[in-house]
Amino acid sequence: MARLLDNRELNAVRSLSYISAADFRRFRAGRVEAFRGYLKGIRLDFNRIEFKLRYMMLSGNEADAKLVMDLNRMKVKFQRELLRVELHLVLFRMGAKTVDVGGLVDVLEQFEAVLTPCTATAVGNR
Fold first, then answer.
1. CA–CA dist 8, 29 (Å, integer)
2. Percent of the chain scored above 70 by pLDDT?
3. pLDDT tens digits for 17-69?
4. Which of 64, 67, 70, 83 is 20 to 30 A distant from 116 in Cα terms?
5. Is the dihedral of CA 116, 119, 122, 126 positive or negative?
């Protein structure tokens, strides 16, 4: 995902002698759209997982209260990072900024770490 908008790769394509400025603009715009598609997929996946977790917690007990707090915290972090990446993408399209997805990836990894014990317990209780 990060490589789609990597300036080194874009500059390498731009430097090719047979690529016109118009072709490069279309190429760059296509990469931005692919990146936006990835962001949309990540958002949908996060929302699906969150919905399923909340549904699972309806039948939970008091011990699951910490998981609810963790889930709420992760949702706020995820939305904040997603908004930051989307803002940087707008600036990137105007040529003013690079897009760093590191913070978004970190939040997703934290989300996975919070979920791993929960899903292992849920599977074990079946």
1. 16
2. 89
3. 999 999 999 999 999 999 999 999 999 999 988 888 877 777 777 767 777 78
4. 83
5. negative
